[in-house]
């Protein structure tokens, strides 16, 4: 079983739609979580960190559920520019190895 | 300020040749990571450097792969006797260091093609 698992998609959604991705992690020692965005043939860039209380940044909301060991990313009012692959990341406390999921591809269509 | 830089941006080589990839982290970042990303795949952890500690080499796929880092600056990833399956984008990332919430900043990657 992969340490971080994501649905690869693609998720094809119309502009203005709300879309949600989930990511599960298997190592209960994971302490911090992130969502990165990767555009085609580009490097990953941090979208947002994920905190236990959940956090929101504009149209983006991230949630962490430790009991069920998953994190989620909600995108409201999707824009064409949101089309990208979204990578889920888990990091273990006390050890700096970071594990990336394989990503969920989002395509926002006009 | 300057971000993470990598060179070369693209490298085409013949099977069996050695290649050396370079990463310049953000100044002051003590942690440095190398990842490999094959076409259409996720990021595969290769190696991690933290300050002067021994590197974590657990992700290196074979003994043909090695990496070095000079202090808290430049790192080089060397692939000896390249094989076609080594073709991928090699990404370098750096972060300030030890905090669990540390953000990694990625370089643009080196696209390696082994013919």
Q: What report would you give on this structure?
A:
The complex is a heterodimer of chains A (110) and B (115). Chain A has 110 residues and is mostly beta strands. Chain A is built from no helices and 11 strands. In chain A, strands 2, 4, 5, 9, 10 and 11 form a 6-stranded mixed sheet that branches. The mean pLDDT of chain A is 91. In chain B, strand 4 (31-37) and strand 5 (43-50) form a beta hairpin. Helix content of chain B is 0%, strand content 46%. The model of chain B has no long low-confidence stretch (mean pLDDT 91). Chain B has no helices and 10 strands. In chain B, the strands form 2 sheets. In chain B, strands 2, 4, 5, 8, 9 and 10 form a 6-stranded mixed sheet that branches. Chains A and B meet through strand 4, strand 5 and strand 10 of A and strand 4, strand 5 and strand 9 of B.
**Helix content class of chain A:** under 10%
What is the straight-line distance between the termini of chain B?
37 Å
Largest sheet of chain A: 6 strands, mixed
Shape of chain A: globular
Series of secondary-structure elements of chain B, N-terminal to C-terminal: EEEEEEEEEE
Helix content of chain B: under 10%
Q: Report the sheet with the most strands of chain B, covering strand number, pairing sense and barrel closure.
A: 6 strands, mixed
Mean pLDDT of chain A: 91
**Unreliable residue runs of chain B:** none
Q: What percentage of amino acids of chain B are in beta strands?
A: over 45%
Any idea what the radius of gyration of chain A is? Answer: 13 Å
Average of per-residue pLDDT values of chain B: 91
Given the structure, what is the number of helices of chain A? Answer: 0
Low-confidence stretches of chain A: none
Strand content of chain A: over 45%
**Run of helices and strands of chain A:** EEEEEEEEEEE
Shape by Cα distribution of chain B: globular
Sheet/helix structural class of chain B: mainly beta
